[in-house]
């Protein structure tokens, strides 16, 4: 019964369905970043399986000639970051993925998870960027620390996806009100747009998209020096509109059987999604 609701946000259980989604987006001039779903693992063997799923994904992108249209997004928890000795385990796994991505001319972006993982994720990013300078990272505007992190990241070649943040965080580390989060987002966005890196605006918020457009103009950014990113299945019409205006747009496309955590975060973000979900139990 939940399947049609899950399908709104997840491209499918398996790789071929993800490739169909990438091609459909490409037909509208929209690029993709693919997320093989999987997080909160408990065993090293799962970390290896997740790494291998990304290697298979990159291999398929290469075979299908889609390396120029799609990159990959990685959750380090799925690579074992949370296990004992997990920092090194995750680094080794994601390094293999970066090598495979580089070999087909595409990139890897590290998703950001809960606040306890930020130091480890940024340290892994710094290691990876030595050999793969185009490796990107997501930063969360709701974290009090992020303005400082963003200042350090707004450097040449650095790809930074700015998002509001999707995890439940305590007030000791994160802004709680929508207004404070939005203001922090704009401050971070200004630093990124004024800097030398490649900002990736990860938001569906119409006001923030508009502010990003204006800041890009103010700082004289060329259209290919930043991009908009939105989640698969959310505000599709806006994704199409931005792409039709000649702007760079990339959809974040999750796929895989392990969709529960991702799906629950999308429900939590928006009461309307919960209504949509509950209605699927009553209308069949
Ligand atoms: P909001 O104020 O939440 O939403 C603005 C408007 O967008 C809403 O009014 C609605 O019209 C639409 N909208 C927003 N969310 C939904 C939804 N779920 N369903 C339907 N409509 C919706 N978070 C992380 O913590 N780590 C990450 O690595 C990360 N990566 C992301 C990558 C991308 C490309 C994007 C777009 C988001 C990512 N997020 C990540 C999630 C992000 O932190 C927010 O939780 C999410 O984007 C909602 O915030 P918003 O900026 O869209 O604004």
From TrEMBL:
Keywords: FAD, Flavoprotein, Nucleotide-binding, Oxidoreductase, Proline metabolism. FAD binds at residues 112, 140, 164-166, 203-204. The keyword Oxidoreductase applies. Its EC number is 1.5.5.2. It is an enzyme of class 1 (oxidoreductase). Pathway: Amino-acid degradation; L-proline degradation into L-glutamate; L-glutamate from L-proline: step 1/2. It comes from the Bacteria. SUPFAM superfamilies: FAD-linked oxidoreductase (SSF51730). GO terms for biological process: L-proline catabolic process to L-glutamate. Coiled coil: none annotated. Binds 1 FAD per subunit. Substrate binds at residues 75, 265-266. It catalyses: L-proline + a quinone = (S)-1-pyrroline-5-carboxylate + a quinol + H(+). Its cofactor is FAD. The keyword Oxidoreductase applies. One of its GO terms (molecular function) is nucleotide binding. Residues 21-276 form the Proline dehydrogenase domain. This is proline dehydrogenase. The lineage of its organism: Bacteria, Bacillati, Actinomycetota, Actinomycetes, Streptosporangiales.
